[in-house]
Amino acid sequence: MNEHLDDILYPPLEPYDTGTLIAGEGHRIAYEQSGNPEGKPVVFLHGGPGAGTSPWHRRFFDPERYRIVLLDQRGCGRSTPHASEPHADLRHNTTWHLVADIELLRKNLGIERWQVFGGSWGSALALAYAQAHPDAVTEIVLRGIFTLRRHELEWFYEGGAASVVPDLWEEFIAPIPILERSQLMQAYHRRLVDPDPAVHVPAAVAWSRWEAANLTLLPDPELVEAMTEPRAAVAFARIENHYFLHGGWFAPDQLIVGVDRIRDIPAVIVQGRYDVCTPAMTAWDLHRAWPEADFVMIPDAAHAASEPGIASALRAATDRFAGLEGAAVADVIAGADAGEARDSGGPGDADPNPDAGEAGTGDPADAVVEGPGLDTDPDADAGADGEGADAGEDAAPDTGHEDHSLRRSRRSDARKHGRADRNGTEHDDAEHEGAAHEDAAHEDAVQEDAEQEHAEHGDAEHEDAAHAEADLSWGDEDESADRSQSTGGADAATAEFAGAPDEHDSVETPEADTDDSTADDSADQEPLEDASTR
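The chain above was modelled as a monomer; its predicted structure follows.
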């Protein structure tokens, strides 16, 4: 299904290790390792939630330089119990359980720190994990940014996206009676949790088809077929719906506000401009809050990691963080700034994609790119390119630390220049001080009028606030009870990014090579079809 990526990503490879992690609450997490056992560790976080991993996900990373870890999150892929089972229990399947699972796996594998790579839901999970465990993260690569804020969910599942794809929207709402369409996520929930396959399978297929049809800029029938395979679709739809009704167990804007905890971690954000599933507004919000991270907008892509432009930018990011000479999103940046057509193939390939400059190939040179300490003045490109080449020659190819230091140095210089500019304006500010006093007097008068108006309408405002508070409740009473039972409340789960509930934190497991919690039994399970590119 992803043969078109052969000129962009690394060749297919097989894992050298597979196993199962006993995570607690009856869950067993399937994982695998591929690439170089002595290489730079990276963990791949799949989307959905509920999509599972696929063999092609290994191909974003240089197998000679990376120790590649893939895991199937709770309830999907090869992990058990599987959410497609008729009476599947999702009470212990939350964001913070997954964060704790990832950290437990890191410790069991004896990894001190690793790169975190995630797209779509995987970007939310990557941010949540990194903000909870910043000392365990070396770099972050994100794609198709999704933070489960209410307006993001309502856009795609409550009618916003219908303005873009009305024909596909009609197919999505068709299984739901007209009187239930005011709350579609709730209406689908009632069907998805029904133990009768005659009820939950058609609902799951319709839910999954809606998403699959919108993942790519151009239709991909093979992807739609893979994602609507009944067993995979039921797990996918049930887990997604469960997470979305609970807002991911995040406080409002938590992942955007929390970037201060990871601000100094080198990162790349890759976003398709025409993404219908997770529109670019969220990636832009993250970029504005986190300007230190490199930001790449792919001009001819939607959401899927398999789209050529997105795949090229993701490989460029992992190559750079592996210290490969000439790799980098920096090449994408230079091409975008100079307006030059560049080869979209990976670094080190003489001519991996000779047609990359043609329209529709996803050439990263056309991408909108922003990053800290990067000169966007076309007149300065020559000097910047020269410095980058020198830095690449001096850098140790197996770590890339020098490259990260250079980026931090540039950020520091940028901050110093910013302070100097502010100091230069102090004299002008003093000249206008007198005028400011006059404005202050006027503002006092305006404030008195505002306070009087506020007093007159205070009761009405309180009444409106009460209605607004009531509107924030998405689920019915049963859903609220389920949320409290599964997590002990979002406040407890998210306090200081503490991770999963206490009973999960109590799980202790010895080292991976002698650990009873890791059993090499996942090989006995049949692999699922490629569930999703999310």
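Strands lie at 17-24, 27-35, 40-45, 66-71, 114-119, 137-143, 267-272, 294-298, 368-370, 518-519.
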